[in-house]
Amino acid sequence: MRVALLVGFSGAIGAILRVSIGEVEFGFGDFPAATFAVNMVGTFFLCFLSAGFIQRLWVNHELQTALTTGFLGSFTTFSAFSMETVSLFQNGAILTALLYVLSSIFGGILFGNIGMNLGRKAGREE
């Protein structure tokens, strides 16, 4: 029960931060820059922490779960990505939708790979 409460609390913080960033206008036309940004940042940090760095920070598994599953899980959002993509297609912004999908997939892989590599290095350093 304690883990569920920690995940819920940290998830609420992640969701509030995600909504706050979503309200910022980035000025990229129809491109959903806010969702793209939080998903890339969240992917980087989840991979960074999961690659070994988090074990150097905390021994407490409950706090690790709260940070990764709770905070980062609610901060990043596949559902918003999907909804925004469908909306772009329905509004005729086909090229923007395709750019969003491709940049999200390849950007996620790129940021995830960078995070994993840096997390492994940071996890090994003494």
TrEMBL record:
Transmembrane regions: 34-54, 66-83, 89-111
Compartments where found: Cell membrane
Activity regulation details: Na(+) is not transported, but it plays an essential structural role and its presence is essential for fluoride channel function.
Family per record: Belongs to the fluoride channel Fluc/FEX (TC 1.A.43) family.
The name this protein goes by in its record: Fluoride-specific ion channel FluC
Positions contributing to Na(+) binding: G73, T76
Pfam family, one: CRCB
UniProt cross-references to InterPro entries, sorted A to Z: FluC
Membrane topology reported for the UniProt record: Multi-pass membrane protein
HAMAP family referenced in this protein's UniProt entry, alphabetically: FluC
Catalytic activity: fluoride(in) = fluoride(out)
Keywords: Cell membrane, Ion channel, Ion transport, Membrane, Metal-binding, Sodium, Transmembrane, Transmembrane helix, Transport
Annotated function: Fluoride-specific ion channel. Important for reducing fluoride concentration in the cell, thus reducing its toxicity.
